[in-house]
Amino acid sequence: MGATVAATGNALPTAKPDSAAQTPYFNQTADGYQLNFDGEHYRALEVSVNGKLVKFRAFENIVYVRRPLEPDYQSLNLYVPEAYFNNGTINGFNAQSAPIFLPNAVGGYMPAKAAAYNDKGFGSDDKPNAIMTALAKGYVVASVGARGRTLEQNGRYTGKAPAAIVDLKAAVRYLHFNDARIPGDANKIISNGTSAGGALSALLGASGDSADYAAYFKTLGAAEASDRIFAVSAYCPITNLEHADSAYEWEFNGLNQYSRMDMSKLNAAGYNDRSKPMPMLEGELSAQQIAVSDQLKAAFPAYLNSLQLKDERGTPLTLDAQGNGTFKDYMKEVIRRAADKAYQAGTDLSDQSWVSLSRDGVAAIDWHGYVHSQKRMKSPPAFDALDLSSGENNLFGTQTVNNQHFTAYSQQHSSLSGGMADAQIIKLMNAMNYIDNPHAATHWRIRAGTADRDTSHAISAILAIKLTMAGKRVDYATPWAVPHAGDYDLDELFQWTDTISR
Predict the structure, then answer these.
(1) pLDDT given for residue 244 in this prediction
(2) How many CB atoms lie within 10 A of CB 451?
(3) pLDDT, tens digit, for every residue of 128-148?
(4) Residue 2: exposure state from Cβ atoms within 10 A (0-12, 13-18, ≥19)
(5) Among residues 96, 65, 66, 64, which one has the least CA distance to residue 80?
(6) In whole angstroms, how far apart are CA 85 and each of 10, 96, 136, 301, 354?
(7) The whole model's pTM is what?
(8) What's the half-sphere exposure (Cβ side, CA atoms, 13 Å) at 427?
C-alpha cells in the first residue's frame, strides 16, 4: 500500500511526534482552540487500496476541545474522500449520507494519538488498515486520539479515568457541532476499537448524551453538542472491570499454568508499539493464588444472577453456587457455534479432543477441555491486582496517586494497603451501567475470539445479552482460534456497517 501526496490544498508540515509545542495545530488561537471546522487546511492524497486508487483529503491534528490538557492526544485526523467535494458518490454514499467511521487506537488504557491513514493495522503489513478500508468504501473517517493512564505533567497525572472516555465523547461532540461543515452524516457515527479501545467504543455507544460527564466537558471546553453515536464495533472489549476478576476465575479456575504479559515492561514499552513482541511471563499459580481464584469464582454466580439475563427465547440464564447452569450452557453453545462455523469452512478439528464431531458438523464441546486447551493469560486477580501492579490499577489512579484498587475484594486483600477509586469514576468507565440509557447506540457488533484469554468470554457475552434485552440490534460472535486482536475481518465489518447505514 503506497501513498503519493499531491500539491493541492494548504499542505501542513509533518508533525514531530513528541513535541506538542511544534505540532501544527491549525485551529490554535491566542486563547485556546477554536472549534469551527476549517476546511482550507488539508493535504490531498492518493493511496492504492487493493489495486484501487483512493483519493482523499487529510485534515490532520485537529484539537477537538478548547482547553486541552494534552493536545497531542486530544486531537483527531479527519479523512474525507475527494469525490465528496465534487458532488460524487462512492458505494452509494455522498457528502450528505456517508457514515463517519470513528476508530480509536487505545490499547491497555494507555494514551493513544489519532491513528494516521498510513499506520500499520492489526493485521499483516500487506493489507490496508481500517482507515483506508473505510475510505475505499466511501466512509468519512475521524480517527481519534485520547489521553491515557500514564500521562503526566509537572508531577500530576493527566490521563487517569475517566479521561479516555471523556476525550472520545468530546471528539464526537466536535463532529456533531460541525455536522454542517464536515462531509458525512454525524447521525451515523460508527465507533471502532480493540481491547481497552473496544471497551471505550462500547462505553461511547452506551453512554451517549449522559449528564454524568458534563463537568469534564465544561473543564475542557468541549463543543456544546451531542455525543451520541449510531453504532459500535467492539473487538475483545476489556470492560466491566468491577466484575472481570470473578468472571475470569469462573472460566479459568482450575487452570493453573499461565502465560501472561509482563505489565511492568509493557507499561514502559508502550502497548501501541506493534513492532515489539509482547513481554511475557510463564509460570504456575501459587497456593495462595489458587485460593484467591477459588474465592473469586465463588463470587461470580451471585453477580451473574443479579443481572436477570435471558436468552432470545426468554430462557433465564443463571448459575448455581458451583458455577454451573443455563448460563454456562449458553457459553458452551457460543463456543460450539464458533467451532462449527470453522469446521463448515474447512478447518480441520480432528486434533481437538474436546470437540465432538458428527456427520453434520460440531455436535458439542467439552467446556473443561476447551478451557484447558491453552494456558490462562492472567494470574488472579486478573485486573485489580493485590499489589496494585495491573494496568487497570494504574487507570484508576488520581492526579496525585498513581495506582488504586477498584474492587472491594482486592482492597480488602491488598498487599499494599492500596486506596479505593471513587465509586462515581468507576461507574463512568463501565458500559454496563448505561445500557438502558435512552440515547445509547442502536447497532452493535461485538467480537471476542475463542483463543482470547485476556478476559473471560462471559464479559462480552453478558454485554451482548443485556444489549439484546434492551432492544438493541446486536451482532455477537466468537471467531474460531482468534486471539486477543481486532480489525482482522474488515470485509465482514464493513459489510455490517453498510447494511445498517443504508
Answers:
(1) 98
(2) 15
(3) 999 999 999 999 999 999 999
(4) exposed
(5) 96
(6) 16, 11, 15, 55, 56
(7) 0.93
(8) 10
